[in-house]
């Protein structure tokens, strides 16, 4: 009787059919159709031309640089993003709200402004660069630095809610059973943080792979040294070589999807593994 009454209740929002249809339409217009056109354009090349374009030594060098710097930046953000989230969630200090707001600055700041600013600061005669024993601007280090800047908020904002909602009674129970602070963190807190941290890592990694505005200024865009894959795509577009540009984009898309899928599988595995303990 209760089930019948529940099914007859009017819902305040549209039902599954309408919402699913609108969601599918929205996803198709913004994601599926544009991505399918990338594959369609690249298919016009033919296999031989496609292979020649995507295996050009200059393009291969840009692939390596893009994935290496994106992974390095995401790894750095994973460590320091956890640290930032821990400080913002566990401690109270002066100007905490301002510091918390500054974490979101890369979301609001135009990427070109960030690139110009970092290039100025870390150039050979910049305020920070002149004190360093190595070059930052116009090197892969500079590219990684720019990607760290744009990717940091993803890890912080994914981990911070988990820490804020974590029950302190669990930590107290662990301490009462004789566990040290490190053991409590490793066995109690870290398993809860791992899925959110991996999600933040994957978001930062994906964001870094497609970043162009902040990188193009600090990279220097030297062939075989500091050219990233998005820059190669822009170069092909400026030359009106649309099939070659889409061919490079297809390779980036496939590899990126495979890597993110792998990260999500690891995240899924970690949830199952630690949920069973």
UniProtKB/TrEMBL annotation:
The chain crosses the membrane at residues 21-43, 63-89, 101-122, 134-156, 188-206, 242-266. It is a multi-pass membrane protein. One of its GO terms (cellular component) is plasma membrane. Residues 63-263 form the ABC transmembrane type-1 domain. GO terms for molecular function: ABC-type sulfate transporter activity. Its main location: membrane. PROSITE patterns: ABC_TM1 (PS50928). Keywords: Membrane, Sulfate transport, Transmembrane, Transmembrane helix, Transport. InterPro entries: CysT_permease, MetI-like, MetI-like_sf, Sulph_transpt2. It is found in: Membrane. Belongs to the binding-protein-dependent transport system permease family. CysTW subfamily. The complex is composed of two ATP-binding proteins (CysA), two transmembrane proteins (CysT and CysW) and a solute-binding protein (CysP). Part of the ABC transporter complex (TC 3.A.1.6.1) involved in sulfate/thiosulfate import. This is Sulfate transport system permease protein CysT.
